[in-house]
Specification:
140 residues, mainly alpha, 3 strands, 6% strand, globular
């Protein structure tokens, strides 16, 4: 039953992340608008929402794995655990640090968590480049 829940959460999270990223890059850009030199507020808010969805999506994967007994994160050589609030804080922090930077090293992934964090870091590196390309390059 735990494996089914883990697979279900991972599939749902990846589906939601994929849909949010695709909808961000496929939003219509009116052809009558003049080229712009700066990012619009709407694009900035959309990017913030996409990043938030990715952070909390990967955080929910880590959370699900931890509560089902799969050790994926270590803090100070001890597996991350605690009540709901502490776990939510720890996995959200780790997910944000992994997506937005190289990480601080205070919480480290182990086992399956390493592969999940590699995927998250890859998304974190590719998303800004894709955003810049979609903003700067005219596809007409």
């Amino acid at each position: 039953m735990d494996l089914l829940m883990i697979v279900g959460v991972i599939c749902v999270v990846f589906f939601i992340i994929q849909r949010s990223i695709m909808s961000f890059f496929r939003h219509p850009r009116p052809s009558h608008k003049k080229p712009r030199k700066f990012i619009s507020f709407e694009d900035l808010m959309a990017l913030f929402i996409v990043y938030s969805i990715i952070i909390f999506g990967f955080g929910s994967i880590y959370f699900t794995l931890i509560i089902t007994g799969v050790p994926v994160l270590m803090e100070g050589g001890v597996p991350v655990n605690g009540d709901f609030t502490e776990l939510t804080e720890a996995v959200s922090y780790f997910s944000a640090v992994t997506l937005l930077s190289v990480g601080y090293g205070d919480i480290t992934p182990v086992g399956l968590g390493r592969w999940i964090s590699v995927i998250e870091a890859l998304v974190g590196y590719l998303l800004p480049a894709a955003f810049v390309l979609s903003t700067v390059v005219d596809t007409d």
